[in-house]
Automatic annotation (TrEMBL):
This is FAD dependent oxidoreductase. Its cofactor is FAD. One of its GO terms (molecular function) is sarcosine oxidase activity. Belongs to the MSOX/MTOX family.
Length: 437
């Protein structure tokens, strides 16, 4: 009788948890362990996936992600595990290009009927009781309204699916992973934790989000295997989010609002978002500045990584980054938003590739080592299906198109065409030090 399969998945964000959930359903007898620095039900986590709310939409001009997102959304809409977390409030997307028309075309090509349309600006401004009437429409060509998109209560959903995976037999270990166990034949046999513990498995999958390049760089140095390094394949980027508590009167108007987007061309900036209020009445925005935190991780080796604090210093948000959120607020609500007080700010770290495509791939430097991450600022919505594709990758069953797009080694376009590419440096966004007289 053959030994049951064993899997160690490092990182319990959407990539890792979805993989664990799909694996344990396919192989109920397998040993599947999620390892993460944070407990799955901790009050604060560093995962990009751990958040109050995330947009869930299939509004992509890229037909591959449009199709994947529709597949995921069908699960959000119908599966009792996922359904409670999805809110079909629609999206309101201010387009400065033909984006909206391309999305509609993709739905048509995929044979999907849905309540989506592009609306002239003057007409759109009056929709939803004029909620976005005071937004910045400079250079906006038209507005895409898709009533079938919406948002998910991200942290609650992540917890629920992790719990379900554990009920099915997945183990969850809280540990900081510091190294990889690679034997002389280049087989990856397991991981080591910073507390000195070794965990072994036939398959080691890194779903470590923004920390991935640093982890691989440290492992490359420790094992003397340069090829483990991610090089310029993955860049850690931070984005600020901010939340304001709405007063009684505003909350009535905003409760059923669609997710707002401001889309810009790459030379102007990344898209901005405003998400509907959470159950404790907090409206959320993400900012315009996507930044690296370039640091010397080893003598002479520089790369971007989240700050070294165990919580990635995610709650330490500078005045400049708070201003970034004020800018987002004004872009959606003009003067009306000025009276809301921002109560909470967080820096969210994600792993980016130049094209925005994920990496779901074997790592060529060691047999049994895999990478499944790089959400590139849009990975959450695929949570229900990511694991299905990671399992296909493990079994060499991905379609050639997906295997090519998500490969470790692939053509990487110039990031100048990617509006979401991290362009700023965290160091330049620090507050000035006050002179001490
Ligand atoms: C501000 C912001 C807004 C976003 N909004 C949306 C949105 O509206 N819709 C959408 O679809 N997507 C959105 N995204 C993108 C999405 O959140 C991410 O792409 C996705 O969550 C990434 O998932 P992940 O599993 O790769 O990484 P993460 O969720 O970051 O998980 C990585 C995990 O690895 C663990 N880890 C790392 N290193 C180690 C180690 N050495 N040892 C142990 N554990 C380790 C971490 O603790 C963490 O739990 C947004 C991202 C940001 C930053």
């Amino acid at each position: 009788m053959s030994r049951p399969k064993s899997y160690l998945i490092v990182g319990a964000g959407v990539f890792g948890v979805s993989t664990a959930y799909h694996l344990i359903q396919k192989y109920p007898g397998a040993s599947v362990t999620l390892v993460d620095r944070d407990a799955f039900d901790a009050d604060s986590r560093v995962a990009a996936s751990w958040d109050w709310n995330k947009a869930v939409r299939a509004d992509y001009d890229d037909i591959v992600y449009c199709q994947l997102a529709l597949e995921a959304q069908d699960i959000f809409n119908n599966d009792p595990l996922w359904k409670p977390y999805f809110h079909e409030t629609g999206v309101y997307w201010m387009c400065r290009s033909d984006y909206g028309r391309k999305v509609i075309d993709n739905y048509r090509k995929l044979g999907r009927k849905a309540a989506l349309e592009v609306v002239p600006v003057e007409e759109a401004r009056k929709r939803y009781g004029g909620l976005f009437g005071d937004a910045d429409y400079t250079d906006v060509k038209e507005v895409l309204i898709n009533k079938t998109s919406g948002w998910a209560a991200a942290g609650d959903c992540l917890r629920a699916v992790t719990r379900k995976a554990m009920d099915l037999g997945v183990k969850y270990e809280v540990a900081d992973v510091a190294g990889l166990e690679i034997d002389a034949q280049s087989n990856c046999r397991g991981i080591t934790t910073s507390a000195g513990k070794t965990l072994r498995a036939d398959h080691v999958i890194l779903s470590t989000g923004a920390y991935t390049p640093k982890l691989l760089e440290l492992c490359a140095a420790k094992t003397g295997r340069d090829k483990l390094s991610a090089g310029d394949r993955i860049v850690a980027g931070g984005i600020t989010t901010g939340m304001a508590k709405l007063d009684e009167e505003s909350v009535k108007r905003f409760t059923d609002m669609p997710v707002g987007f401001q889309g810009y061309p790459a030379d102007v900036g990344p898209f901005l978002g405003s998400l509907p209020p959470t159950k404790d009445r907090q409206l959320k925005w993400w900012g315009w500045t996507i930044f690296k935190n370039t640091q010397e991780v080893l003598p002479g080796r520089y790369l971007s990584a989240p700050p070294a604090e165990p919580d990635y210093a995610q709650w330490k948000v500078t005045g400049k980054l708070k201003e970034d959120i004020n800018h987002a607020n004004r872009s959606f609500y003009g003067k009306r938003g000025a009276k809301w007080t921002m109560e909470k700010h967080r820096i969210c770290w994600d792993a980016f590739t130049t094209s925005g495509d994920f990496i779901i791939s074997p790592h060529p430097a060691a047999k049994g080592l895999y990478v499944a991450t790089c959400g590139s600022f849009h990975g959450f919505k695929f949570f229900p299906v990511l694991g299905k594709y990671v399992v296909q990758m493990l079994e060499e069953a991905l379609t050639p198109e997906l295997a090519g797009r998500w490969a470790w080694d692939r053509e990487r376009p110039d990031p100048k065409y990617n509006p979401e590419w991290p362009r700023a440096e965290m160091d330049d966004l620090r507050d000035p030090i006050q002179a001490k007289l």
